[in-house]
Amino acid sequence: MSQKTINITGWVLTIILGLLFIMSASTKFIQNAAVLQQAAAMGFSPGTYLAIGVVEIASLILFLIPRTAVIGALLLVAYMGGAIATHVQHQLSAAMPIAIEVLLWITIAIRFPQVRQQLLLQSK
């Protein structure tokens, strides 16, 4: 696969993830009654839920900026780990956050060859 194809694939996956995280964060910012009720069932106050949305958007912005993308990626990985833990703790299906986490790691491996080399212990 050419480097151009790899770069395009990495950015397409980044855009898909960006849209998913924007949709997720927007539900936290809108704070309609159904969303707040679901958040309360998991133990989150409206203020905490809003703060989680701010962290999500801040991490996404860092992920989208090439210079800070690795830091943003690691923050999003941690964020999704928390989402998975919350789903498991409340006996909810963790399939969606796990799928997003897997897609995130695939995107990281494609976009950041230095990270892929470190994770797979490949020589340069």
Describe this structure in words.
There is one protein chain. The chain is mainly alpha-helical and 124 residues long. The protein has one domain. Helices cover 82% and strands 0% of the residues. The protein has 6 helices and no strands. The longest helix has 28 residues, at 3-30. It is elongated, with a radius of gyration of 16 Å. The mean pLDDT is 93.
* Number of extended strands: 0
Strand content range: under 5%
3D shape: elongated
Discrete helix count: 6
Determine the fraction of residues in helical runs and give it as a percent range. over 70%
Please give the domain count: 1
What profile does the largest beta sheet have? none
Rg from Cα: 16 Å
SSE run: HHHHHH
Summary of the model, kept short:
With 124 residues, the protein is mainly alpha-helical. The chain has 6 helices and no strands.
Task: Give the topology.
Layout: H1 3-30, H2 33-41, H3 46-64, H4 69-89, H5 95-111, H6 113-120
Feature tags:
mainly alpha; 124 residues; 0% strand
